[in-house]
Design goal:
Elements lengths: L7 H6 L13 H5 L14 H8 L3 E9 L2 E13 L5 E10 L3 E2 L7 E2 L3 H13 L6 E4 L6 H10 L8 E5 L5 H9 E2 L11 E2 L1 H4 L3 E6 L6 H13 L1 E2 L8 E2 L2 E7 L3 H6 L5 H7 L2 E4 L10 H12 L6 E2 L1 H9 L5 H15 L4 E2 L8
Parallel strand pairs: 4-5, 6-13, 6-14, 7-10, 10-13, 15-16
Antiparallel strand pairs: 1-2, 2-3, 8-9, 11-12
Helix pairs in contact: 11-13
Length: about 350
């Protein structure tokens, strides 16, 4: 665990650009402020994993820096001598900008084990072009995860287009997704660009994909398999260029068994499934989320939470997840005249 050498980026990032260098110190002392290795402090350790496998180890950790805590993607690669014995390791650390450990004005926030697992999966798949399926209860922030996948991909400078799949009829599905030509139907006075075309070069996010009726699923499958589509009323096939991210609160595997969701479409969109945890699975994030949400709801007021308010928030079951927490805090902010949210301001039974 002893640091044998550190480049300028490491020294500056961890605050050693002008002070005494990190060489000779333990890695866990600098990154975690621990007095013993990560795997002896209740966390996974990439060095321990690399020792066991003899190969590359990669983990998501939360590191301390002079600017505060941050999520990092740690990759440890062993160096061997001529006999094949490991003599050292090269550690590569990449800061994840898609999530924060502190209250921010936008994006994902969290530090719990369940949240970090979802973030770790996200960081692995985001740089690729593989389809991603986000699975989780309503109100867990699946659209934020989808946007984080987009922002961490090579398509981040191109459009992120959301398709709400709830309540789409046959005609609306095709016209919204594929667009239509002038004169395709009554009222089509000009050509309309569809959402697939709008997402060209970027990411197409199908929200609540499990709500697409069975008879419309074949049209989506054809788009994904051929990579082409036609506008309604058009004859010329057009080439689609998007990265697919889908989300659902439904159990698609069970729907496949019940034959209410096509098996071939399921396997097409679920190449890389990510479980988005409910608030009940990440209760240790409630205080952090509450602070972040208050900053977003009332950015100029700098509202604080009374200790008894925190206790009451942490005891709530939250069947509506983060969406419910936000609703509670929005009302509480309106009821608070000062700068501290009291327990009586919370509409919690």
């Amino acid at each position: 665990y002893t640091i044998l050498g550190a480049n300028r980026a490491y020294r500056q990032h961890y605050g050693y650009d002008k002070a005494a260098g990190p060489v000779g110190r333990k890695c866990f002392q600098i990154s975690h402020r621990y007095d013993k290795p990560c795997d002896q402090s209740g966390e996974q350790c990439p060095m321990s994993m690399a020792r066991q496998t003899g190969g590359v180890a990669r983990l998501l950790h939360i590191h301390y820096t002079p600017k505060g805590q941050e999520h990092v993607d740690v990759e440890l690669r062993p160096i061997t001598d001529e006999s094949g014995e490991i003599v050292a390791y090269v550690e590569r650390i990449r800061t994840l900008r898609t999530a924060s450990v502190g209250p921010t004005g936008q994006g994902l926030v969290g530090s719990s084990r369940a949240f970090n697992q979802a973030l770790s999966d996200l960081s692995r798949v985001a740089p690729t072009d593989l389809p991603v399926l986000l699975q989780g209860e309503s109100g867990t922030g699946k659209e934020l995860f989808a946007r984080a996948v987009h922002d961490a991909s090579e398509r981040k400078l191109n459009p992120f287009v959301v398709v709400d799949c709830t309540g789409l009829s046959d005609t609306l599905f095709e016209s919204e997704l594929f667009g239509y030509e002038k004169g395709a139907f009554t009222g089509a006075t000009q050509r309309k660009q569809g959402l697939v075309e709008s997402a060209s070069g970027g990411t197409l996010f199908l929200d609540e994909v499990g709500d697409i009726p069975l008879n419309l699923q074949v049209k989506l499958l054809r788009l994904l398999e051929t990579g082409t589509y036609r506008r309604v009323g058009g004859v010329e096939p057009l080439r689609a260029d998007f990265r697919l991210v889908a989300a659902t609160h439904r159990n698609l595997k069970k729907m496949v068994e019940l034959e209410t969701f096509r098996k071939d479409l399921y396997y097409r969109i679920s190449t890389f499934p990510i479980h988005v945890p409910s608030l009940a699975e990440r209760r240790e994030d409630i205080l952090l989320l509450s602070s972040a949400l208050l900053d977003r709801i009332s950015p100029k007021r700098k509202l604080k939470l009374h200790p008894d308010t925190i206790t009451k928030l942490q005891e709530c079951p939250y069947p509506g997840n983060i969406r419910e927490l936000r609703n509670i805090l929005e009302r509480a902010s309106l009821m608070t005249d000062g700068d501290t949210v009291m327990p009586g301001h919370l509409a919690i039974d």
